[in-house]
């Protein structure tokens, strides 16, 4: 992975950085491919083909099918959220997410090293929120490593449930819902001696979407859940690029 490759490809352990601290994981990062020049200067940063491993030979085909399935599932989840906000099922489509961008990360976390029988607690991925609408996290069934901070400020483990996804709320859904849905602060600490694998699929708005609270949310939830919070508009592509450019030690 390099900036010249549109931040696509393989990153070594420690190349991903959260708040200035290297994360102890390696990954293959893929993004929806962008046609050259489609989004002007801001999109240029993310242009380039995905770099798929040549072995196994069917890897690219399988991943593209997985992306399609996750895209369809995410759209259905958002239609349910839209109904829950008292809107139509399609509030998150059209100009907002009718042509959704996506990100997929295949992440490997080395097993923990132990000293005197205790894990050294290397941070596999530091505390952060996700950038878009929803994240579908497909994690190993037998290793508990993902932690989420609750409203009381406590870190609780997202214990894997076989056959399920963990679904995170992202920054753009927090803005669109006027704060009704909270962007989830989470981190990864792999205390297992075994290597842990996670496939994270990030379902986003349109790359060039101007994101601000939906009319239904401004009317029904003025000021968001806290009663006084104001959410400024954001352009998703600009938000993504600002994060990507500070997330890698290159």
UniProtKB/TrEMBL annotation:
Keywords: Iron, Metal-binding, Oxidoreductase. One of its GO terms (molecular function) is oxidoreductase activity. The keyword Metal-binding applies. Transmembrane segments: none annotated. Residues 100-205 form the Fe2OG dioxygenase domain. Belongs to the iron/ascorbate-dependent oxidoreductase family. This is 2-oxoglutarate (2OG) and Fe(II)-dependent oxygenase superfamily protein. It comes from Arabidopsis thaliana.
């Amino acid at each position: 992975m390099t900036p010249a490759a549109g931040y696509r490809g393989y990153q070594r352990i420690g190349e991903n950085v959260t708040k200035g601290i290297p994360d102890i994981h390696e990954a293959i990062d893929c993004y929806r491919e962008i046609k050259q020049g489609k989004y002007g200067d801001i999109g240029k940063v993310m242009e380039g083909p995905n770099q798929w491993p040549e072995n196994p030979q069917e890897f690219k085909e399988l991943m593209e099918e997985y992306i399609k399935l996750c895209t369809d599932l995410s759209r259905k989840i958002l239609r349910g959220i839209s109904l829950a906000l008292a809107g139509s099922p399609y509030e998150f489509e059209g100009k907002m997410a009718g042509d959704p961008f996506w990100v997929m990360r295949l992440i490997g976390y080395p097993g923990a090293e132990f000293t005197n029988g205790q894990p050294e607690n290397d941070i596999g991925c530091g505390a952060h929120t996700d950038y878009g609408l929803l994240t579908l996290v497909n994690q190993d069934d037998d290793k508990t490593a993902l932690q989420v901070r609750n409203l009381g400020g406590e870190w609780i483990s997202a214990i894997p449930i076989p056959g399920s996804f963990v679904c995170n709320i992202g920054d753009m859904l927090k803005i669109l819902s006027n704060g009704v849905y909270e962007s989830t602060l989470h981190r990864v600490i792999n205390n297992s001696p075994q290597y842990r694998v996670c496939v994270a699929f990030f379902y986003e708005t349109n790359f060039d979407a101007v994101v601000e609270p939906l009319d239904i949310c401004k009317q029904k939830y003025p000021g968001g859940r806290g009663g006084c919070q104001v959410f400024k508009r954001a352009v998703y592509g600009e938000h993504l690029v600002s994060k990507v450019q500070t997330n890698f030690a290159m």
